Amino acid sequence: MTKPMQSTPQQKRVLSGMRPTGKLHLGNYMGALYNWVRLQRDYECYFFIADWHALTTDYADTSCVKKNILDVALDWLGAGLEPERSTLFVQSWVPQHAELHLLFSMITPLGWLERVPSYKEQQQQIGDVAAGGKDLSTYGFLGYPLLQSADILIYQADMVPVGQDQVAHVELTREVARRFNNFYPAEPLILPEPQALLTPAPKLPGTDGRKMSKSYGNTIELAAPEPVIRQKLKTMVTDPARIRRSDPGNPDICPVFDLHKIFSSSETQQKVREGCTTAAIGCIECKGWLADGIVAELAPIQERRRAFENSPDHVWEILREGSAKARTRADQTMQQVRDAMHLPQIETSPAGAAL
Q: Which CATH number fits domain 224-306: 2.115.10.20, 1.10.150.120, 1.10.240.10, 1.20.140.150?
């Protein structure tokens, strides 16, 4: 049996991914990408574009999947993910994910999937067909947390960076690994249980005050030009009690100030607090200062993105190379899995084609 490839104590392995649903926004950046860029300095990182996961809800129209993959890759590279430090790849280009998912589906109780919190939540939010929503009564939607488990365990990842709302998915992965190892024991364990790596992930309000989300249409994209950013912020909701310019406001209940806390300096935040609570400044001025901070944060990201945008073939080559590396690593795990389950190994001809 092939021995597991273990991370060193100094270089633990991290795995995470994003669905390709179009250009990324500030919520995606602060919720995950900002932390990924920092994790790649200290960990062996695998980051994948989860195109199969995108099909779990958007299966009826797949015309934009390829374009969306490129957009996500451009935003990743613009934000600072480096192919020299991290393995960046496309999920569907590593078919071992599907093989492990299929094997997991043989041993995973149905009730484990039905109790995942996001299963019922998303059905309620976007699965009301009568109200114009999507039909989520599919096997793919029910089974997507198990596909996530395969995504993680096939790299024998030590940690999965998540926010608090995703911890349940990591716990399911741990349960699946435990069940597999119980059925098919080996020494050392073939599928070590990953840990949830809780990362700072502030919930950014969108322009309408709700959580920033594409489904709400309230986002600010990382690639948005400065005039678009400023115009969107001008329409952002503020403290509802501040009706007239002369009314003092309360920054602590204002969505605009929530963004100031992330993108503005402490000095600017102090100016906003003093000016708002005394009605010395209006909301337009406050939003202008916020726009200054966001534009400054995004300027280097957009500059790097433009450089890659001018060379799309290079971006696809990065993804191809990363996917080849991921396939090699994933196949090591699958050889162990097949051995443990007493399945025949996939034999290849000298040319590499399966026999």
A: 1.10.240.10
